[in-house]
Design goal:
The chain contains 4 helices and 5 strands; from the N terminus they run βαααββββα. By secondary structure, it is of the alpha+beta class. α1 runs antiparallel to α2. The N terminus is likely disordered.
Length: 155
């Protein structure tokens, strides 16, 4: 099991350099996961489809309907595995979301698979753990998320 890793969208550069190279498949998979969450928060649906093409039939309107409230997110790796040319990540996603005139923080468990050959992410499973009113510091949900978002608890 890899140690828990965190990435906060605000801490990332505005553009991820294309020259960034790594031989570590777990680092690569996590970096692409962070990029995907950032692109969703920026509503860049064309780029989302390139990195995560599992919903090719989704229109911009459908993506907007599903993700319009996402303001940003922090990912924590709860568990990981290398399986048949892919890296599977079980992560806690602490999302800051706009719902009407209010902001809320939602803790999700997500199970994603990064294909090393295709260089794409397949979002296999996700579930909501809990929602808290207001904009909560993601680090306060880290331990709970890492404990709950493992392959033993999330399919």
């Amino acid at each position: 099991m890899q140690p828990a890793v965190v990435a906060t969208l605000a801490a990332l550069p505005a553009v991820v350099p294309e020259t960034t190279q790594t031989d570590d498949p777990f680092t690569l998979a996590f970096g692409e996961s962070v990029l995907l969450v950032r692109l969703i928060a920026q509503h860049d649906w064309a780029a989302v489809r390139v990195i995560s093409p599992e919903f090719p039939e989704w229109s911009d309107t459908k993506y907007e309907s599903g993700y319009r409230g996402l303001l940003g997110a922090t990912l924590y790796v709860g568990d990981s595995a290398f399986v048949s040319g892919a890296v599977e990540l079980w992560m806690a996603e602490v999302a800051s979301e706009q719902r009407g005139s209010a902001v809320q923080t939602t803790l999700y468990c997500v199970h994603w698979e990064y294909s090393l050959q295709a260089e794409t992410i397949d979002r296999l499973h996700g579930k909501t753990i809990r929602t808290i009113g207001g904009d909560v510091d993601p680090s306060t949900l880290r331990d709970e998320g890492v404990a709950k978002c493992t392959r033993r608890l999330v399919p």
